[in-house]
Amino acid sequence: MSTRAQIHVEGSGVYIYKHSDGYPKGVLPWLEPFVARFHAGRGWDPEYLSARIVAEGVRLFLESSAEYERETGKPLGGSEFLGWGVSTSLHGDEEYIYVIRETGTIEIRRPIDGYRKALSVEKTEIVKRVRAFKTARAPALRVVHQGAGS
Predict the structure, then answer these.
(1) pLDDT tens string 54-70
(2) What's the burial of 36, exposed, middle or buried (CB within 10 Å: 0-12/13-18/19+)?
(3) Residue 104 is part of which domain span?
(4) CA angle (30 as vertex; 146, 26 as ends), nearest 5
(5) Cβ(132)–Cβ(98) under 8 Å?
(6) N or C: more exposed end of the chain, with fewer CB within 10 A?
(7) Cβ atoms within 10 A of the Cβ of 127, count?
(8) C-alpha to C-alpha distance for 26 and 22, rounded to whole angstroms
(9) 122, pLDDT greater than 90
(10) What total of structural domains would you count in the chain?
């Protein structure tokens, strides 16, 4: 079964849905430097950051699908039109929720009551925080808190 996740940029009003590989080792290696690069180039802009995260995620998905097909001679499966989506709420079937804060922190969250229970960010708990970029309000700090599930 796929590890589903959603990414929320504080102030954007949308949740970006990632159908598979949503665990921290599948998301943070590209999301953290991408958010830092975006912030360095554009500053804090929740709507554009959300849109660019979707574009980057789809680009990486199509790139890995093409690489898989080259290596195996078989298509990855599914469709080029699946894997990423945008909604105005949490789906409730995600195992991880990533919240990108204006302070530069990315919170990695999990549902408090387990899988398929988190229909709001309030029903999740922070298992880890990472710092994607520095702001005047937040000192540079790589790992702020690390708990279970990271």
Answers:
(1) 999 999 988 988 888 88
(2) middle
(3) 5-146
(4) 60
(5) no
(6) N
(7) 17
(8) 6
(9) no
(10) 1
Residues 6+ positions from 95 with CB-CB distance below 8 Å? 3, 4, 5, 22, 23, 110, 111, 115
Residue (of 72, 69, 79, 75) closest to 19 by Cα position: 79
CA distance 126 to 27: 16
Q: Which long-range contacts (CB under 8 A, 24 or more apart) does 100-103 make?
A: 100/7, 100/8, 100/9, 100/10, 100/35, 100/49, 100/132, 101/10, 102/10, 102/11, 102/44, 102/46, 102/135, 103/135, 103/137, 103/138
| Placement of tokens 């943070």 in the chain | 28
Q: If you search the block for the tokens 């922190």, which residue do you land on?
A: 105
Torsion of CA 107, 109, 122, 135, to 10 degrees: 0
Cβ atoms 92, 118 nearer than 8 A: yes
**What are 74-96's pLDDT values in tens digits?**
877 667 788 899 999 988 888 99
